[in-house]
Amino acid sequence: MKRNTTFLLSGGAGRVVTAIPALEKYARLNPDDDFKVLIHGWCDLYWSHPVLQDRTFDINQKGSFELFVKDNILVSPEPYHRWGYYNQELSLAEAFDEEINNTTDHSDLDKPNLYISYDESRKMKANLKNITDQTKKEKLVVFQPYGSSAMVENDCFTDSSGRSMYPEDYVKLVSHLSEHVTVIYFGSPDIYQFSKDTYSFNPPGGNLRMYMALINECDYFIGCDSVGQHIARAFDKPGLIIMGSTFEKNVSYPDYFNFYRNNNVKNSYNPIRIGGVDSELSDRKNDGAMKFDDKQLEEIFSIIGSEIDPKKQMKKSNALKKNGKGFSN
């Protein structure tokens, strides 16, 4: 009996997105394999995908073992275990390519391809028009300051992984940005801190497909090492990724985005998913990687401004300049 393949994807939404190019490649190279993809959540990221939608199922679906595993060859790709990945020579997409397609030739690997429906696009356009009609700002910027490991306990924000901005820095930066552009927050309402003229999409039932539609309509993306940057790359949106404890080559797109990091902190690789080896120690070495002083925040602001409006190089408004008001105020 011919056995087809079932790929079991674990981890966060970013990993699920970065596996797409390798799965697309597998489909091209193995047309006779009626493969399936089981995912621990995040199945909706593959909705509308012409190759992957009908092959993808939630692992918690009743009967998934009998339907998709028992008679198939089970493959559970783990890109973090690749030598090239933990030595910063491979991206997540390339490491998935090695795991799924057993190849070191990544020249035919595409960017991640995500798809939204016509109705999803129409609904988001209408929502955004209501906002921009209020702000009267031409440019729309989506900002994801916090990664998935960020949390608030007893009113104290923490992210031991060193991938999230600190709320006070985010608020200070976005308060300046919102003088020039419409800023939409991407993230959990439990952590959300905002400033004047900043908007949030967190309606009941809000999900990543909503954020996919949002990013597809934006002019510019600002983010950290989290799923938003992968969505922005999928939709060819320019952006600035603010890096902390992780490495551009591993988790992002160095040939596409611009980056900013705190060079006062020397990064130490965190061997996450390798049995917990040195993980907490690495986090401690990376302490402060995402804490920025006013000079650094102004540098970030200038980079964003030069990319959003390269001719004018977005400057602080007259209101901010009055009385010497700046990032230190």
Question: By helix and strand content, what is the structural category?
Answer: alpha/beta
Average of per-residue pLDDT values: 90
* Count of discrete structural domains: 2
Number of helices: 13
The oligomeric state is single chain
C-alpha-based Rg, rounded: 21 Å
State the fourth-level CATH superfamily of the largest domain.
Answer: Glycogen Phosphorylase B
Largest sheet: 6 strands, parallel
Please report the distance between the alpha carbons of the first and last residues: 71 Å
Q: Proportion of β residues?
A: 5-15%
The number of E-state strands comes to 12
Low-pLDDT segments, ≥5 res: 317-323
Order of helical and strand elements: EHHEEHEHHHEEEHEEHEHEHEHHH
C-alpha geometry = globular
Walkthrough of the structure:
The structure is a single chain. With 329 residues, the protein is α/β, with parallel strands linked by helices. It folds into two domains: 5-101, no CATH class; 118-324, 3-Layer(aba) Sandwich (Rossmann fold), CATH 3.40.50. The chain has helices at 13-18, 20-29, 64-69, 83-86, 92-101, 118-135, 167-177, 208-217, 227-234, 248-251, 279-285, 294-308, 318-321; strands at 5-9, 36-39, 56-58, 73-75, 140-144, 151-153, 156-158, 182-185, 198-200, 220-223, 239-243, 258-261. The strands form three sheets. It has a six-stranded parallel beta sheet with strand order 9-8-5-10-11-12, sandwiched between helices. It has a four-stranded parallel beta sheet with strand order 3-2-1-4. α9 links the parallel β10 and β11. α6 (118-135) crosses α8 and α7 (167-177) packs across α12 (294-308). The relative contact order is 0.12.
